[in-house]
Model the fold of this input.
Amino acid sequence: MSEETTVPLPHGTRDSGIPARFFADPDFDFEARMALGLATQGVGDIGGVLVTLASIEEGSAEGWFQAWKASAERLRAQAESSAASGHEESARWFFLAAAEACSRALAFVTGLADPGVLAPTFALHRRCWDAVVAHSEGCFLRVEVPYEEGTLPGYLLRPDASGTARPTLVMTNGSDGSLTSLWGTGASGALRRGFNTFVYDGPGQQSLLFERGIAFRPDWEAVLTPVVDVLVSRSDVDARGLLAYGISQGGYWLPRALAFEPRFIAAVVDPGVMDVSTSWTSHLPPELIALLHAGAREPFNEAMREVEADPVMARVMAFRSRPYGTGTPFDTFSQVLRYHLRDVVERIRTPMLVLDPEGEQFWPGQAEVLFQALRCDKERVRFTREEGADFHCQPLGRALTDVRMFDFFADRLARVRTH
Done:
């Protein structure tokens, strides 16, 4: 369900250093790369991903959904067979792959004739994820985080069930990333290195949006600080070893929270995002931007009706607007304009690594803008086409991303331990 890969206007994706494109359509191609990148980190198998991709007709949202849903059902059946035979590790692997296949199936839900498949497919995704936790032999735990009048669903993933206090990586997802995507973009690497990982759904993300209708908020410190409060109270978390990672739109939410939450010793943003609205407004003509900033609600909405006259565009706009909890295009764009760091960036003191991939198609140039504005201890890493690690969140360079990220974390942990 990638919001970023269903933008209503072209986003200028170009060829990468990988010799062949998997699809001519840039959105399909990007999603294919994401699936393959996660497979390299243990979320499914590369062969299974390639077989699924090969069965999809170019540009067919329905074909995409059916292929991935069939893969999810096959993997779930194998998971249940393994579980029934008492093979916990195998069951865990199959359930993880099945959960990811469900999530991948919904990448182009806005293009489906029946968008009603979202709810049952997401429910299956989450059941498979919960089965991963259930078959972890005590290593993974569900941890509820108090939030306003209710809770946020969180999961503490531990290398073993010993209860040893460990450095803990807290992962903040993007606008519509799944928990299984977090496994392949940092969680598995943390576990291999002996760290805990904490993953969660925040407002507007996954279960909070689809099951509870809770929208995004720009002030992510109201989300992340309750997470930290829960973690530092636990005996299996080293409170002096909290690490943070924000991926995709999390590259805005995490630094926003860090301007107010000082208990992390290091953070990585992938990529850095100074102003979320640039991924929206860069597609608008100057006349519409002028109407937006002038507060001209009705003229702006009227102009956008011409765009939404295309049924596909209308569905995409509805899907993109839904997490913001808004009713009209003017309301959505006005809300998105609030998602920037300009008034808080100088408050950030947490050492930060800013990732900056070549060919970033959603927030081009934003990593550099954020890096230059930061006044904390900071580093920036470029990922390049030559390395095969270009595009948003370098989907085919996830192992390289892990190396850069965890070297940065190791250096900061070493500094803390020597003081």
About this structure: The longest strand covers residues 237-247.
